[in-house]
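Quick one:
INPUT:
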């Protein structure tokens, strides 16, 4: 009861409308999760935790969409129109790259390498899927926006690999990173912009800039909306996002802005609030 009251009160500040608006938004497009059922079973047999709750579900069922999946989605979207006759639109919060496991291993884990998700689709034999993305964009029903370059905390992951962390290496050998990893500061590999160390901000800024450049190269337009994976984010990265075209940022109403080494500070947001770079916040009721 008290939580419901708090949620209602939190909606008082910010933008309001009397219109009835339906927003269809989906995360993680383009990112790999579990390479195969064999990989999942092998890791379970060797004692690797596949997460809890939704983490387990994603590891069991999440995969890259193929042409059949996209055809089915587009069929649903084009069977629904608004009062102006426009088709329903699907905001696909996408990751534009994945780790290049082969190159990382070949270089003895000294450097990080990535491949664009269009290359990943080829590796997973999802033939024609990228062309379907382009068709959905052209039809105006499938609108990829920015969820990050990878759904991966590159620096935390690479440090663990360089330290020959047993579980991280076991998962790497199966072609994934998305398990319930242990980190002394509680950084999940899935949380791309969590901060293990404050010095990682420089690399994260480079990741945002290169990721947004890839969006433009692949899709022919600049992304305008940025949703950091899993939520953790340092607001010092808003400037590089704004400089590369981002106009809207997702944040929880009470954001725990990460500072490194497990520290954070609380920042309050409301729907439509502007930051120092004229970006507007899109808020959720959840608390990261």
């Amino acid at each position: 009861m008290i939580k419901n009251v708090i949620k209602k009160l939190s909606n008082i500040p910010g933008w309001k409308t009397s219109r009835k608006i339906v927003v269809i938004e989906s995360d993680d497009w383009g990112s790999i999760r579990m390479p195969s059922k064999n990989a999942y079973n092998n890791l379970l047999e060797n004692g690797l935790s596949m997460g809890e709750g939704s983490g387990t579900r994603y590891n069991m069922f999440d995969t890259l969409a193929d042409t059949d999946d996209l055809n089915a989605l587009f069929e649903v979207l084009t069977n629904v129109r608004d009062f102006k006759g426009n088709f329903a639109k699907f905001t696909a919060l996408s990751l534009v790259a994945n780790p290049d496991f082969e190159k990382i291993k070949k270089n003895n884990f000294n450097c990080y390498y990535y491949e664009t998700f269009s290359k990943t689709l080829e590796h997973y034999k999802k033939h024609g899927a990228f062309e379907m993305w382009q068709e959905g964009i052209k039809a105006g029903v499938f609108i990829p926006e920015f969820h990050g370059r990878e759904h991966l905390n590159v620096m935390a992951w690479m440090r663990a690999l360089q330290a020959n962390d047993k579980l991280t290496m076991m998962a790497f050998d199966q072609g994934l990173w998305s398990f319930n990893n242990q980190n002394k500061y509680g950084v999940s590999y899935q949380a791309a912009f969590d901060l293990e160390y404050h010095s990682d901000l420089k690399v994260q800024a480079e990741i945002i800039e290169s990721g947004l450049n890839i969006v433009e190269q692949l899709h022919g337009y600049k992304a305008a909306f940025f949703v950091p994976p899993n939520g953790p984010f340092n607001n010092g990265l808003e400037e590089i996002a704004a400089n590369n075209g981002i106009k809207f940022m997702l944040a929880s109403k009470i954001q725990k802005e990460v500072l490194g080494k497990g520290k954070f500070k609380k920042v309050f947001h409301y729907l439509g609030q502007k930051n120092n770079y004229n970006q507007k916040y899109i808020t959720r009721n959840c608390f990261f």
